[in-house]
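Quarterly update, task 2.4: iron/sulfur cluster-bound model.
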Amino acid sequence: MLQQTRVDQARPYFERFMASFPTVSVLASEELDAVLKHWEGLGYYSRARNIHAAANIVREHYGGYLPDDPDSLRQLPGIGPYTAGAISSIAFGRPVPAVDGNVVRVLSRLFMVDMDTRSSRDRRDAEPLANRLVDPQRPGDFNQSLMELGATICTPYTPACSRCPIQSSCMAYRSERVDDFPVRVERKRAPIVNHIAALAINGNGKILMVRRPTEGLLGGLWEVPQESLADEARPEEAAVLMMQKYDCTRVRTADLGMVRHAYSHFKVSATVFRIDVDCPHGDSETRKWMLPEQIDELATTGITKKMLGLLTGEHPQ
Ligand code: SF4
């Protein structure tokens, strides 16, 4: 949870999660839907799927207890080099580094090495440097102190060098080149993808919810029907055509407005329609007809919540 979210925001999610899934075995035996529901609002739902899959592997292969070495930890879904190093050193006292972006920044300045904190290759390259420094007696404390130094003193802009406990060893400080490290590689702007979406409502006032494929972005979450819009297509016609893919016939259409939503590598700008429909099919594994007040029972995507808000005016865009 803390890989993308601040402690104060993650705390209530963490507490609810631990109350519902207090052990690896309990987590492993729960349905994925229940785990996704607890993750709802945190984003990066692949992490919820990974922690559920990892719990199943830990239960089956390690008797319900996490392995203590980083190599075994890295075999588990969702655990990369940083997390493996953090668990191994902090929870089990193994003398291995844990290199996050903050640590890369400190090391880059300490040794005056060109590294970009956002580059996974540079993080990997920083591991041997961090490995040289790890205190074998207290590796967990050492790794946490290095992360904390980067988060609170050796910050990206105007680091507090006058208060830094490793100032005398810092090559960038001694060379008066702190501003030159780490390097900053310019990133491309996130592209904007145009979508159309339909709040399809049947004669009973129920809204069609569809389930995303388990694999891929937001896998397994529920959403209202939506798809990308071709450049030359007219939004309303495309929305009505989309409903035909669900064997639904349009009765009437109303334009509800636009919704925008940002993901890590792109942004979506969606035109949302209310489409009253006739539809012969009932519920299935991947489709449900639900009253608006029932939809909260499902784990839904963030953009779908915004779209549903257009019905009630709760989420003006
Ligand atoms: S002296 Fe300054 S640049 Fe060097 S590690 Fe400390 S805070 Fe960072």
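Highlight for this quarter: The domain at 89-187 is CATH 1.10.1670.10 (Endonuclease Iii, domain 2).
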